[in-house]
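Backbone-to-sequence.
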């Protein structure tokens, strides 16, 4: 993904946030006057957002859920960039509306927060225009209690201190952190263990999710938080279709298009290492990428024609980056691709010309498939036309009654 639609935030782990409220006639919870809280996040189609906060209140005793309302607690969020932005303000400082307050099965208070595609102040990344990078924002959340809650035996409780804990996103957290022997970072999802060798899906991110080494920024996080590209293949639906698949998401040290020929062997090294250390079927290795990663997925099939069972380049780039320069992938290389290829883009993409890139590649790659959308719309929300990876992450493209994930799952070398 090249640019985050909604700005995103990441927590300052362990930041101590205090919020005391003296309510006349209300008993303080004694030694239980301090609780920690987690920031609960989901990666939406437009990127990760913090959708709720969980207060660790179960340890103070069973609370009466009837004493919780949307006005019991208020939530304030402040986000700042972890690196220099050149003067651009990519953060925010605002109140997050509480839409519901409830107890979870453990007895902890959960504050549901207003969120949704396009909403400001809920995300976990910020996009720095001058660097063309998404970065995780340093985030400080402040919780304030405005009315007491009651224990089930009737005693009112006012909490005087809230300590911020970690960011929790189960889908992202399911991917382990790794670094290759050459120093390239990557995230890896491992399917449920069972007999037999499994397929491998390689997800190559867009330009915005690479590192910014001049700033000492190489986080191995934005690849899973900026969009659902890799996460989609780890969902129950995808895992059922693929019969349990490994999903790997390498992170470039800059942008794939900066030096595709240099990055290709680094990605291939990760694939070889996984083939050596995991029960992966070498005949069923698939490569999928968006934008910069769409270019890189095509490049991988030109450099390693015998490695991949299928390739799905989304809104990829093949033409020259600047007028007068040679194309990133020459026509002769595209015409020589033997890997089964399904290209995806949207006609209203104003970042990468779909006609000059995706359609052009389709016309040259033998027996390739093409899905060309008019717009990128999901659940009634219209996204920028460049964001056609949303459709692939939801298994939407289809041809002759077969969707893209099923098409991939049937392919093998």
């Amino acid at each position: 993904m090249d640019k985050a639609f909604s700005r995103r935030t990441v927590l300052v782990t362990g930041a101590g946030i205090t919020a005391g409220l003296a309510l006349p006639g209300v008993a303080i919870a004694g030694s239980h006057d301090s609780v920690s809280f987690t920031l609960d996040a989901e990666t939406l189609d437009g990127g990760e957002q913090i959708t709720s906060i969980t207060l660790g209140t179960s340890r103070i005793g069973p609370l009466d859920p009837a004493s919780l309302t949307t006005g019991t607690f208020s939530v304030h969020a402040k986000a700042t960039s972890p690196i220099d932005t050149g003067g651009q303000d990519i953060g925010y400082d605002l109140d997050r509306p509480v839409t519901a307050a409830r107890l979870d099965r453990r007895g902890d208070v959960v504050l549901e927060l207003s969120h949704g595609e396009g909403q400001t102040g809920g995300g976990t990344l910020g996009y720095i225009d001058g660097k063309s990078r998404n970065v995780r924002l340093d985030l400080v959340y402040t919780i304030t209690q405005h009315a007491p809650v009651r224990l089930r035996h009737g005693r009112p409780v006012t909490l005087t201190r809230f300590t911020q804990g970690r960011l929790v996103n189960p889908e992202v957290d399911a991917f382990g952190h790794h670094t290759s022997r050459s120093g390239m970072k990557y995230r890896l999802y491992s399917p449920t263990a069972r007999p037999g060798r499994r397929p491998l899906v390689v997800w190559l991110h867009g330009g915005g999710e690479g590192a910014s080494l001049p700033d000492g920024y190489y986080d191995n996080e934005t690849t899973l938080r900026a969009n659902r590209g890799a996460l989609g293949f780890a969902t129950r639906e995808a895992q059922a279709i693929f019969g349990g698949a490994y999903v790997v998401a390498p992170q470039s040290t800059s942008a794939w298009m900066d030096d595709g020929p240099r990055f290709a062997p680094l990605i291939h090294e990760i694939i070889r290492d996984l083939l050596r250390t995991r029960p992966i079927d070498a005949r069923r290795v698939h490569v999928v990428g968006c934008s910069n990663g769409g270019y890189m997925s095509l490049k991988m099939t030109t450099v390693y024609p015998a490695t991949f069972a299928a390739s799905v380049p989304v809104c990829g780039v093949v033409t020259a980056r600047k007028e007068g320069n040679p194309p990133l992938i020459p026509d002769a290389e595209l015409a020589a691709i033997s890997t089964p290829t399904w290209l995806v883009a949207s006609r209203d993409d104003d970042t990468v010309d779909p006609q000059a890139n995706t359609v052009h590649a389709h016309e040259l790659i033998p027996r390739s498939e093409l899905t060309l959308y008019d717009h990128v719309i999901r659940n009634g929300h219209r996204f920028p036309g460049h964001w056609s990876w949303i459709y692939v992450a939801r298994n939407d493209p289809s041809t002759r009654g077969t969707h893209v994930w099923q098409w991939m799952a049937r392919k093998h070398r």
